[in-house]
Amino acid sequence: MNMQQYFMPVRVMCGERIVSDQSRAVASFGKRILLVTGRNSAKICGALQDVEQVLKNNGQIGVLFDQVMSNPTIDCVYEGARIARQEQVDAVIAIGGGSPMDAAKAIAMLAKNDLARADLFSGHYPNGALPMIHIPTTVGTGSEVTPYAILTNEEQQTKTSMSSPDLFPKLALLDAKYLEKLPARSVIYTAVDALSHSIEGMLTKKANVFTDSMAYQAISMFSETLPALETRSFSYADLERLLRASALAGMVIANTGTSVVHTMGYSFTYFKGIDHGCANGLLLGSFLELAQRQLPERVGEIVHHLRMQHAKELTACLRGLILERPSLTEEEIDFYTRQAASSKKIQNGLVAVSADDIRRMFADAAER
Ligand SMILES: [Fe+2]
Known about the structure:
- The protein is α/β, with parallel strands linked by helices.
- It has two domains: 11-178, Rossmann fold (3-Layer(aba) Sandwich), CATH 3.40.50.1970; 183-365, Up-down Bundle (Dehydroquinate synthase-like, alpha domain), CATH 1.20.1090.
- It has helices spanning 18-21, 23-27, 41-45, 47-58, 74-86, 98-110, 184-202, 209-231, 236-256, 260-272, 276-294, 296-305, 311-321, 330-341, 355-365, and strands at residues 11-14, 32-36, 61-65, 91-96, 132-136, 148-153, 158-163, 171-174.
- The strands form two sheets. A six-stranded parallel β-sheet has the order 1-8-5-4-2-3, with helices on both faces. A two-stranded antiparallel ribbon has the order 6-7.
- Strand 4, helix 6 (98-110) and strand 5 (132-136) form a beta-alpha-beta unit.
- Helix 7 (184-202) packs antiparallel against helix 8 (209-231) and helix 11 runs antiparallel to helix 13.
- The site of fe (ii) ion has 4 residues, from helix 7.
């Protein structure tokens, strides 16, 4: 039977001043709220101030945990959960990009589950998680609409995904004004991450008519914004389009998951400190070219929505957008290849990927 399904239980609300407009919805999350964010970005973009004002007007108490670093660690989320319990918070508001939003999910879950580190990635969280509101301040992760939290896993020397329906936020509030001070480089890298979610999602075994329709729309919106990405100058309308495309792409992977590009990209991030979206962008073109050789019709549709003729054009486009490239030794390429080839995520894809394919894609991404 060709069973198809779609599930994504997050209420998504978009628009200018959406945080203050939804103050009554925020009030319904309880008296004491843990605010999870990084050290700077939420303050610079004004989102934290808006949330604190709403909490004050509602008579709610905000407890600030602003210690989330890029690629959050397991220690970081256990510390956040310790504070959530100590302060007896009723809910969590995440403000930021993928790192604060993913950390917030792990914190919201750990606040309700006394879980050993060995069980953190099990996906079995008997007491669920504290209710969450997510406010994205980048245009890539889509974490506000996914059931995933990706953490740095020192033991496995990679990034590892927690996955459970308990990790879906209850509410996502999207306001493009929080993107206006985001550096162009961050806009580009996170937008490329969202593009990777759409394309990888379409090339997984779980892709279906529902996820395809969202992926096509997100890819078209990326393509429409390409002139702004290439000139590194964004209007409010560009930022709003990218923010919504990012949520759409998140809705795709909420059901399909990601595959080869993300699996390979985690090695670049873990070992080379390369930004997540940049890492994916270094690999996405080669992956789509490989996919086009195996699935010409399906990739033809993707390329059509990019307003391109061939996957090679995406490779050239990404080379123009992503100016940094890692230097890799043969030993590093071999090690990363072994690590990626052994990942279960590879099985999630529709594209057959051999160890030689992986090695070649890493080599193509490297400085030469
Ligand atoms: Fe991603």
